[in-house]
Specification:
Layout lengths: L11 H23 L2 H4 L13 H7 L4 H4 L14 H8 L10 H9 L19 H5 L6 H4 L16 H9 L22 H18 L8 H4 L2
Length: 222
């Protein structure tokens, strides 16, 4: 009596099982790889080659953001300071501290420190720091309360919806230009008063500075 099914069907269960295992393994691997903080970003806090505390340098000592990130008002990017910038102070302060060995070596050899980039948007997204900073958008809006961080981490999603929230209501994110890098500044310690001032003054800034935020795709995708 001839078989009802072709002989190759005898291998079908094993092939289906193997295919299922491969698909499952690929799904787990893809999820494991692309859903880590490195890709979802929020909470991403890599170990840097040199420990640097913004809480000490900004909150305690009072360094202005622009001392290190001096390009932020005139360029699309916010630069990482050169090692020589660090040594402007540390030639005198904690001069022989072993934690600064890599910084001193960088200055002597001219090789930049391999800092790990934390804040990042996709390559197809255009963002200009200077445009935002010179129109009253503080560092904390995108980077969180970075002045209190012992180790910098990715605090905001920087997603399209995150950006659009600001573009749809810029008044709620604006502050006086002289307060942009004063990261602890508030309109008022009273939340109700602060909200009212933010609304009235923010709307005034939008008018006075002729702010025209775009929600067009081409605004960010160029």
């Amino acid at each position: 009596m001839s078989d009802i099914f072709p002989k190759w069907t005898n291998q079908l269960p094993a092939k289906v099982l193997m295919g299922g295992l491969l698909v499952g393994a690929a799904t787990v691997a893809g999820t494991w790889y692309y859903f880590t903080p490195k890709y979802t970003r929020v909470g991403y806090q890599p170990i840097q080659p040199v420990s640097f505390s913004h809480a000490v340098h900004v909150d305690q000592i009072g360094l202005d953001c622009r001392y290190c990130h001096h390009a932020v008002e005139k360029s699309w990017y916010s630069n990482i300071p050169a090692s020589s910038t660090c040594m402007n102070c540390h030639n005198q302060i904690l001069k022989n501290d072993p934690r600064l060995a890599l910084v001193e070596q960088s200055v002597q050899t001219g090789r930049p420190i391999a800092w790990v980039q934390i804040h990042k948007v996709p390559d197809y997204v255009y963002f200009n720091h200077s445009v935002h900073v010179r129109r009253g958008v503080s560092c904390v809006e995108c980077h969180g309360q970075i002045n209190t961080m012992e180790e910098v981490y990715h605090a905001q999603p920087l997603s399209m919806s995150f950006c659009l929230e600001c573009h749809r209501d810029p008044a709620s994110r604006l502050r006086p230009l002289e307060k942009v890098t004063d990261l602890n500044w508030k309109w008022s310690n009273d939340p109700k008063t602060a909200a009212q001032l933010q609304k009235t003054r923010g709307e005034q800034f939008v008018h006075d500075w002729a702010i025209q935020t775009s929600q067009s795709c081409s605004a960010c995708h160029r």
